[in-house]
Write a structure and sequence with these properties.
Blueprint lengths: L1 H15 L20 E3 L1 H8 L5 E5 L3 H4 L8 E2 L7 H6 L6 E5 L4 H13 L5 E4 L2 H8 L1
Parallel strand pairs: 1-5, 2-3, 2-4, 4-5
């Protein structure tokens, strides 16, 4: 009986007298900060208006470009095997406004330019050429 009492007292001390471990508070979900800015077609016109340090970069295919292109843009096909080599040759001191047909490839290009290549002035045209051509 004495042993049982000691066991109960020991269990009480070990389990009952120690502070409860609370589950850690959930951390707020943080959205990954983007290093580039999304802009509208109207903002593109305002930013690019006659500024020689602003380069409009079209990352669509030749077939897509044949349907129309933003005036003054340069094309580097996102699907081209040497795409990364070509964008790595761009002047990182310039401001780039990147677009594709609807925004997917241009957003991916903006991530490569900012996160991998260290470009600081990069903007993505929301909705791509589709949004731009509808806004005219």
């Amino acid at each position: 009986m004495k042993t049982l009492s000691l066991l109960i007292i020991t269990l009480f001390i070990v389990t009952g007298c120690t502070p409860k471990q609370e589950a850690p508070a959930p951390q707020p979900e943080t959205e990954e900060m983007s290093l580039f800015e999304d802009i509208t077609p109207t903002e593109l016109d305002e930013i690019a208006a006659g500024d020689p340090d602003v380069i409009i970069l079209d990352v669509r295919t030749d077939e897509e470009v044949a349907e129309g292109m933003i005036e003054g843009a340069i094309q580097i096909d996102y699907r081209s095997p040497d795409f990364r080599d070509k964008i790595a040759e761009l002047d990182s001191s310039k401001t780039y406004i990147v677009y594709c047909r609807s925004g997917g490839r241009s957003s991916a290009t903006c991530e490569i330019l900012t996160q991998e290549l260290g470009f600081e002035n990069v903007k993505n045209l929301e909705g791509g050429y589709s949004a731009y051509s509808e806004s005219e």
